[in-house]
């Protein structure tokens, strides 16, 4: 009879432990599923769309027969669920129809219903998006292209999600970006360049892992590690930078490659900061105007605010920034916060 110290028993116990770990670990530590690659059909369809947008953008506003041109902000909603904050955004936009357009890219697999708001919104032809893939880059470029095609007066493009809320009134944001519409719109239209508000970071602790997420040398020779940047997914881009993104091909061929390390793969947080830092670093703010709380992030998701956290003090705190601009938007808010947010909308959020 074998003793408890027998090497055979130790080996058997080790084998059994490994077998049970292999069998049950996925239930407790689910693995990320490898995203599907972007199909050739989708790629060609997008390239055609981007080409159309860049051709149309070459037409000058003065040649379009618009008597009193007013610069507009295009709000780009990227969503995979119901737009629960539609009533809050409706109040935000109310009375400013001449100065904005809304475009919504709703993941077709999520069956998002049209928003129940009184403002006109453009649901653009959308394609499926997945985390840890370049599909989110494609969706954001698609939103930019549709907005450029739709209205030549869209001169700023603000990307937000279904979990974003405004922290200021529409007038405050418009005047901060463009100025007084009655006095400065023509001057704004005639200016050759406008700054984009996009976060660009070079010292993020996980940057090395993110750079090699597709393989050790996968990004070379087009993109060295020193050129690789990270930033917030949500931005406000000027039209000239939106067009630059639609025309770009070289970096896109690298960022659309599948990742081997899905836990370090966030293409939408890398492509835009990297491209604009290489193409026009002086024309970018290097900071975002969307406030996000990463103090207790889980699986790549930031802190989610709940109803009991909503207060005037929270709104004032979320506005505070270290730049010359106050934060315009904030995320991530749970659906249950809609009621308390609506209660302080007029008295706090839209009172600047």
TrEMBL record:
Topology versus the membrane: Single-pass type II membrane protein
GO cellular component, one term: membrane
InterPro entries noted in UniProt: BC10-like, Glyco_trans_14
Segments passing through the bilayer: 7-29
Subcellular location: Membrane
GO MF annotations, alphabetized: glycosyltransferase activity
Domain of life (superkingdom): Eukaryota
One Pfam family linked to the record: Branch
Swiss-Prot/TrEMBL keywords: Glycoprotein, Glycosyltransferase, Membrane, Transferase, Transmembrane, Transmembrane helix
PANTHER family on file: CORE-2/I-BRANCHING BETA-1,6-N-ACETYLGLUCOSAMINYLTRANSFERASE FAMILY PROTEIN-RELATED, CORE-2_I-BRANCHING BETA-1,6-N-ACETYLGLUCOSAMINYLTRANSFERASE FAMILY PROTEIN
Protein name: Uncharacterized protein
């Amino acid at each position: 009879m074998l003793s408890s110290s027998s090497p055979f028993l130790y080996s058997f116990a080790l084998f059994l432990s490994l077998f049970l770990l292999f069998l049950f670990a996925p239930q407790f530590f689910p693995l990320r599923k490898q995203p599907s690659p972007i199909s050739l059909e989708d790629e060609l369809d997008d390239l055609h769309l981007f080409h159309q947008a860049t051709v149309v953008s070459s037409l000058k506003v003065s040649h379009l027969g618009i008597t009193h041109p007013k610069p507009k902000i295009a709000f780009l909603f990227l969503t995979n669920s119901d737009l629960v904050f539609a009533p809050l955004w409706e109040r935000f936009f109310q009375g400013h129809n001449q100065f904005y357009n809304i475009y919504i890219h709703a993941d077709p697999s999520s069956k998002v219903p049209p928003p129940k708001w009184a403002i006109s919104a453009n649901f653009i032809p959308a394609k499926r998006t997945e985390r840890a893939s370049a599909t989110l880059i494609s969706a954001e470029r698609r939103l930019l292209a549709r907005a450029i095609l739709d209205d030549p007066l869209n001169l700023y493009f603000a990307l937000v999600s279904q979990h974003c809320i405004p922290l200021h009134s529409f007038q405050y944001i418009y005047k901060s970006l463009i100025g007084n519409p009655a006095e400065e719109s023509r001057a704004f239209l005639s200016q050759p360049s406008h700054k984009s508000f996009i976060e660009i970071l070079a010292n993020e602790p996980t940057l090395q892992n993110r750079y090699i997420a597709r393989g050790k040398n996968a990004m070379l020779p087009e993109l060295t590690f020193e050129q690789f940047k990270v930033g917030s997914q949500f931005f406000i881009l000027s039209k000239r930078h939106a067009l630059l993104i639609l025309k770009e091909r070289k970096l896109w061929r690298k960022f659309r490659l599948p990742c081997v390390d899905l836990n370090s793969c966030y293409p939408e947080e890398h492509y835009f900061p990297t491209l604009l830092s290489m193409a026009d670093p002086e024309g970018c703010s290097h900071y975002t105007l969307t406030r996000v709380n990463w103090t207790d992030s889980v699986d790549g998701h930031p802190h989610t605010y709940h109803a009991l956290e909503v207060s005037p003090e929270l709104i004032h705190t979320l506005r505070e920034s270290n730049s010359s601009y106050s934060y315009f938007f904030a995320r991530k808010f749970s659906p249950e916060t809609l009621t308390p947010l609506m209660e302080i909308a007029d008295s706090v959020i839209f009172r600047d």
